[in-house]
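Data deposition worksheet. Section B asks for the primary sequence of the deposited chain exactly as it was used as input, without tags or linkers unless they were present during the calculation. Section C holds the resulting structure in token form. Section D is free text for depositor observations; keep each observation to a single sentence. Incomplete worksheets are returned to the depositor.
Section A, Depositor: J.P.
Section B:
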Amino acid sequence: MRPLRIAAHAELVSLIIMLANLATAHLGPISSLMGPTHGCAYLFVVGATWCLRQATNATKAIAVIPGVGGLLALRRLSRAGTALPRPGHPERATQP
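Section C:
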């Protein structure tokens, strides 16, 4: 789950940087770096989510949303109790 979490955050951050660059200076090197970074992170998020056995069809469909799909998929997985607890955080109490 940790690689999926890292890729989901990288996907969102790279999209924000690309949109900020587009709205401001539109520097070519930033676009050249962030475009492939965002694309690779997006593909990794989709592929990793689709490979998870515990991911439902709805979770897989949500992962396809560019930018925030990975974070939304992680949220659905953690609510279903399938995600491992984050390091340094106490485990959630199980609900009845």
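Section D:
The mean pLDDT is 88.
The chain is about 65% helix and 0% strand.
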